[in-house]
Amino acid sequence: MYCLGLISGTSVDSIDAALVKITGKELDLNIELLSGINHDYPDKLRATILEVAGGKPLSMEAYAQLDEAIALCFVEAVDKIKQNHPNIELIGSHGQTVYHRPPNQENIGYTLQLGRGEIIANLTGITTVNNFRVADIAAGGQGAPLVSKIDAYLLSDPEKYRCVQNIGGIGNVTYLPAKKEDNWQKKVMGWDTGPGNMLIDLAVQKFSNGEKNYDKNGEWAAQGNPYLELIEKWLKHDFFQQPPPKSTGRELFGADYLEQCWQDAQKYNLPETDFLATITDLTAASIAHNYQQFIKHPIDEILLCGGGSLNLYLKKRIQAHFPGSTAVRTTDEVGMNSDFKEAIAFAILAYWRYVSKLPGNLPQVTGAKQERLLGDIHYPL
Ligand SMILES: Nc1ncnc2c1ncn2[C@@H]1O[C@H](COP(=O)(O)OP(=O)(O)OP(=O)(O)O)[C@@H](O)[C@H]1O
Ligand SMILES: CC(=O)N[C@H]1[C@@H]2OC[C@@H](O2)[C@@H](O)[C@@H]1O[C@H](C)C(=O)O
C-alpha cells in the first residue's frame, strides 16, 4: 500500500511529508521510502502558530481559521508529492501540536493537534487518519511519544542494545533491548528526554535579532565553551528527575525557560557564544542524565534522528557524555532516513489503524491503561 505520512513538529520549521510503500503484514512490515519533502508554512501562519503555541489566547473564530489554514497547508504538501506519485492510497496526518499538557495526578491531560482531517481527505480525495494522540490521553497515557512502537519493530537488533534518540524541537528516546532477550518487546521503553533544538533555536533567534532560525551544523555554538556549573544547575529541573512515562513541549521548555537560562548566564557574564554552547550541551547532558537514571543495561549504540542530528557540535557533546563503548550514529546508518522518520511513523500508524486495525500505542511507554486504536478516519467525498 502507498501511504503518505505528514507531520509538522514542535520546531514548526516545516511540514514533513513522506510517501512509503508498505509491504508485509501487521507488525512485520517492510518500508520503502519513495519520496520525502519539506513544505514550508507561509511566514505569517508560522508566526501565528508559534504565538499560539507560546500561550497567546485565541478567539473561537481565530481558532477555527487556524485549524483550517494548517489543513490547507498540509494539502499543499500532499499535492506536491502527488505530482510525481498520483497513486497515494492512505494519508496519516499528525497535524500541528499547539498545546500539550500530559496528565497530572488527577489524571487530567490535554493535547491538541490542528489541521482538520476532513479537509485533507476531501481536498486530496484520499482517506485520511489524524488526531492520533487523544485516544492514548483518554486512556490515561501521555499521548506521546508514539514513534516507540515503530522504532521497536523497525530498528531493534538481534544482538545490540540501542537507544533511538530523536532530536526535534523536543527530544525523545526509544530504548530497544536486544531481540535475543526473552520478551524483548515488553522491555522496550520510551519517553521525552526534554529540550531538543527548541532552546538552541530560540537563543539563535534572540542573538541574531530574528535573522537566523537555527544554528546551522552547530557552527556558532562550536565557537564557545559550555559552562558546566550552569548545566549542573539546570539539570536539577523536575522534568529531568521525573521517571517515565513523561512527555513535554514548548509549555515547559519554551521562550520563558530560555529567558530564565539567559538570566542565570548573565550572573556569570557569559558571552553569547558560550551561552549557545551551554544551552546546546544542556540537550546533550539531559539525554545522558535521562539514560543514566532510567536505563539499567549498557547501551551499545545511540541512533540519532531529527534535525538535531545535523548539529555537529551537539553530536560531539552527546558523544562526550558517553565516553565508553557507546557509539553515536544516525538512523541513516541502519537504513532509516533520519529526516523523515517521524513522517514515516505516521504513515505506519495510519496503516495500523485503517488496514490492520492494530493499536498504535505502547502502554509501557505512554502510561496508558490499555493498548488503543489511534486516530480518527476521514473518508473523502
Ligand atoms: N543543518 C542543521 N544544523 C543544525 N541544526 C539543524 C540543521 N537542520 C535542522 N536543524 C535543527 O532541527 C530542527 C528541526 O528538526 P525536526 O524537523 O526534527 O523537528 P520537529 O519535527 O519540528 O520536532 P519534534 O520532533 O519535536 O516534533 C530545526 O529547528 C533546527 O534546530
Ligand atoms: C505532543 C507532541 O507533539 N509531542 C511530540 C514532540 O516532538 C518530539 C516529542 O515531543 C514526541 O513526544 C512527540 O512526537 C513524536 C512524533 C512522537 O509522538 O513520537
From TrEMBL:
- Name the InterPro entries on file: Anhydro_N_Ac-Mur_kinase, ATPase_NBD
Keyword Magnesium in the entry? The reply is no
The protein's UniProt keywords, in alphabetical order, are: ATP-binding, Carbohydrate metabolism, Kinase, Nucleotide-binding, Transferase
| Pathway linked to the protein | Amino-sugar metabolism; 1,6-anhydro-N-acetylmuramate degradation; Cell wall biogenesis; peptidoglycan recycling
The catalysed reaction is: 1,6-anhydro-N-acetyl-beta-muramate + ATP + H2O = N-acetyl-D-muramate 6-phosphate + ADP + H(+)
List, alphabetically, the Gene3D superfamilies matched: 3.30.420.40
The reply on keyword Ribonucleoprotein is: no
What are its E.C. numbers?
2.7.1.170
Q: Which GO terms describe its biological process?
A: 1,6-anhydro-N-acetyl-beta-muramic acid catabolic process; amino sugar metabolic process; peptidoglycan turnover
Give binding positions for ATP: 9-16
| Annotated GO MF terms | ATP binding; kinase activity; phosphotransferase activity, alcohol group as acceptor
One matching Pfam family is AnmK
According to its UniProt entry, the function of this protein is described as: Catalyzes the specific phosphorylation of 1,6-anhydro-N-acetylmuramic acid (anhMurNAc) with the simultaneous cleavage of the 1,6-anhydro ring, generating MurNAc-6-P. Is required for the utilization of anhMurNAc either imported from the medium or derived from its own cell wall murein, and thus plays a role in cell wall recycling.
Q: Which family does it belong to?
A: Belongs to the anhydro-N-acetylmuramic acid kinase family.
Q: Which NCBIfam families did the record assign?
A: PRK09585.2-2 (NF007143), PRK09585.3-2 (NF007148)
Protein's name in the database: Anhydro-N-acetylmuramic acid kinase
The organism of origin for this protein: Crocosphaera watsonii WH 8501
Q: Which gene encodes it?
A: anmK
